[in-house]
Design a protein that fits this description.
alpha/beta, Rossmann fold, 2 domains, six-stranded mixed beta sheet
Length: 426
């Protein structure tokens, strides 16, 4: 049987390349202002975006270096060399002290912006965790604990960010409020289903449609155990996020420069060029990883039974409700569920991976991006006596795929447009 792994990896790489800052940023950058360009970046692509902005202003436009300043706060292991914009490596998915300082310094720099300055805000997935500025009365440790509880709850990212935004001094439009004298231009790489600007990095420069009441309802919905300080903060009207019409947005513009759909389209083109009939399921899928895998396995088995050569592709961001104590993010859990459902069927191979290069994990740059499965996986499962259901029960996909040798290890990709899932049926 033909090895489809090189093709699966090429499809993933095409999706990532379509959203890389070096490809997508420059054409969206504005001319130099009368004053300074103050660049504030956050997320997994922050350093790469900052470096691309430096090339535009310093090399292409010849801006005097002293007129360019800024801070790029990114995930540990995601730094790239920069000249004028300071790079801070910080915790993700659980924030750390470096992110706390990066956010404080970014707020101060925004507040220093004058009417002739351009406040250039560059956002990518991970910005919510990288920029951590707890609301008054909430300690850093309390915010960290809440963050962990939210990540384990199975809540979609939009709901996670609704809570985060109401316990922050930088999210939910508050960065724009700090820099309101300047012209504010936000350029964002979308990592959220439906590309909602208020959800990308928790919307630090745009109006927020969610409310304190929404945040309180989500704490109740997921039964989160939170400290009294957090309950008090969520009851304080002073912690309401910025709404449409706020003076903070008088000179603010927001633009998407890369979207999950464009990356999924790039993946689809490659699969079609390889001779596959396409079943495209969209770039905005959400849901429990194992349930979505069951739906996709049914499609694959139907195609196999009908002797159709198809590629089933999807994007979006799945979730895992953590009940065990294993390791592995939603892409690995999806692939593990697929392995259990497809193990008796030849001619099917699949990849599920996060476009940022890290699927779940402990916040290390060496975390797996996801996993691949095919007939070799099924043979290894059999020879080692591995039971996918047992590993699923413990949410331990990383251990399973470590044993079969099927983890996808890419390292940081320096962008993030959610997940890419591909099933090839031959």
């Amino acid at each position: 049987m033909t090895d489809r792994r090189p093709l699966l990896r090429a499809i993933y790489d095409a999706a990532v390349a379509a959203a890389h800052p070096d490809v997508v940023l420059a054409r969206h950058l504005r001319p130099a202002p009368k004053g300074r360009v103050i660049c504030l970046a956050a997320g997994k692509g922050a350093a790469a975006m900052a470096a691309a902005a430096e090339r535009h202003y310093l090399d292409e436009l010849g801006l005097e270096p002293s007129r360019l300043t800024g801070i790029a706060t990114t995930r540990h292991g995601h730094a790239v060399p920069t000249r004028r914009i300071r790079v801070v490596e910080a915790g993700h998915p659980v924030p750390d002290e470096a992110g706390l300082k990066g956010a404080e310094d970014s707020l101060r720099l925004a507040a220093s912006a004058g009417v002739d300055d351009l406040l250039l805000v560059l956002l990518s997935g991970g910005g919510s965790a990288n920029w951590i500025a707890p609301a008054e009365g909430v300690s850093f440790m309390q915010k960290q604990q809440l963050n962990r509880a939210l990540l384990r709850s199975g809540a979609p990212i939009g709901e996670v960010n609704t809570v985060r935004k109401h316990l922050s001094r930088i999210k939910g439009g508050r960065l724009a409020r700090a820099g309101k004298l300047a012209e504010i231009v936000t350029l964002a790489i979308s990592d959220v289903p439906h590309d909602d600007p208020s959800a990308i990095a928790s919307g630090p420069t745009v109006p927020d449609p969610t409310t304190l009441a929404d945040a309180r309802a989500l704490v109740a919905k997921y039964g989160l155990q939170v400290d009294d300080a957090i309950r008090i903060a969520l009851d304080d009207p002073g912690n309401e996020s910025c709404k449409p019409g706020d003076a903070a947005f008088a000179r603010a513009r927001f633009e998407l420069i890369a979207q999950p759909k464009a990356s999924l389209d790039a993946a689809i083109r490659l699969a079609r060029d390889a001779g596959y009939e396409i079943i495209g399921l969209g770039a905005d899928l959400e849901g429990e990883a194992r349930d979505v895998a069951a739906d996709h396995a049914r499609l694959a088995l139907l195609a196999r039974a009908a002797n159709r050569r198809v590629a089933i592709l999807s994007g979006g961001e799945l979730t895992v409700t953590v009940r065990g104590n294993g390791r592995g993010g939603p892409n690995q859990e999806y692939a593990l569920a697929l392995a259990g459902l497809l193990k008796d069927t030849p001619g099917i191979s699949a990849l599920a991976a996060d476009t940022d290069g890290a699927d779940g994990g402990a916040g290390s740059a060496a975390d797996p991006a996801g996993a691949m499965i095919d007939s070799a996986t099924f043979a290894k499962m059999k020879s080692l006596g591995l039971d996918p259901k047992a590993y699923l029960g413990n949410n331990d996909a990383t251990a399973f795929f470590s044993a079969t040798g099927d983890l996808l290890l890419t390292g940081p990709t320096l962008t993030n447009v959610n997940d890419i899932r591909v099933i090839l049926v031959d």
